[in-house]
Amino acid sequence: MAKTSILDKEAQHFGGMAADWWDPNGKSAMLHKLNPVRLAYVRDMIDQHWQCDECGFKPLEGKSALDVGCGAGLLAEPLARLGARVTAVDAAPELIAVARDHAIGQGLQIDYRATGVEDIDGRFDLVTAMEVVEHVADPQDFIDALSARLAPGGLMILSTPNKTGWSKLLTITLAEGFGQIPKGTHDYEKFIDPDMMRGLLAHAGLECIDFEGIAMSPTRGLHLSEDLRLNYLVAAKWA
Question: Which SUPFAM superfamilies does the annotation name (predicted)?
Fold first, then answer.
C-alpha cells in the first residue's frame, strides 16, 4: 500500500463540517475570516514570483495550480478566478461533494478529487496547502509529496499555526474553548514553528523565500503582520 499523509480521524472531523462550510457564520466561520488574508498573500507572492501586473485580473492565466486539503473550495475558487487550471484535493469526500456543487453554481471548472496528494500525477506551477500540514500523518512525508508535484520554476505556499504559547492560547484555549472553532480541530503537539518548517522544506529540496505572519487584533481582526507568533504563511521555490 502506498504511503499516505491522510489521517482518517482528521478527514472525518473536517468532513463533519461539510454541510455549512460555505456559511460565513457556520462552523467554518474562522476560515471565512482567514481566507481573504491568506488570499492577499497568495496574490502578492504570485505577482512577485512571476513578475505579474499587480492590477491584472488573471495573473495565473495559462498556469496550473494544485490546492491540497482544499476543504469545500474557499481558496480553490479564487485561484480559478485568477486564471489557473485548478486541481483541488481533500481527504473528506463530503467536502469534495460540497465543493463540486458550489463550483458549478459559480460557473467555475475545478478538478476536485477526494484523495491524498500522493495519488495526484503531474506537476503544477502553484502548489498550496493552507492549514493542512499540522493535520497530516507525517509532516516531512507530506512536504516531500507536495514538492514532488511542484513544477520547475514553480511556487509553493503553505500556512500553519506557529508552535507558541500565544498560538495555543488563541487557537485552542480561546477559539476552540468558546466555540469559534470546533473542539478537537487542533493538536498543539503537531504545530510547527518556522525553523522546523524551513528544515522540512530544505529536506524536500525547497528554499524558503518569504515568511509572513497572520496576527489578530481587536481593531483589525486577522491581518498580515511581521508577528509570526500566532500563525504564518511561507512561500518556497526550488533551491
Answer: S-adenosyl-L-methionine-dependent methyltransferases
Q: Which residues of 39-72 are buried (b: 16+ CB within 10 A; e: fewer)?
A: bebbbbbbeebeebeeeeeebbeebbbbbbbbbb
Q: Is 44 annotated as a binding residue?
A: no
Q: Which helix (H) or strand (E) covers residue 155, if one does?
A: strand 150-161
198 labelled binding-site residue: no
Q: Which CATH architecture has domain 8-238?
A: 3-Layer(aba) Sandwich (3.40)
- Surface-to-core class of residue 20, CB atoms within 10 Å of its CB (0-12 exposed, 13-18 middle, 19+ buried): middle
Q: Domain ranges for the chain, please list them.
A: 8-238
Give how far Cα 48 sits from Cα of 41, 45, 155, 234, Å: 11, 5, 10, 14
Q: Mind listing the pLDDT tens digit for each residue in 185-214?
A: 899 999 999 999 999 999 999 999 999 999
Whether the pTM exceeds 0.85: the reply is: yes
229 a known binding residue? no
Asked whether residue 165 is marked as a ligand-binding residue, the answer is no
Share of the chain above pLDDT 90, in %: 82
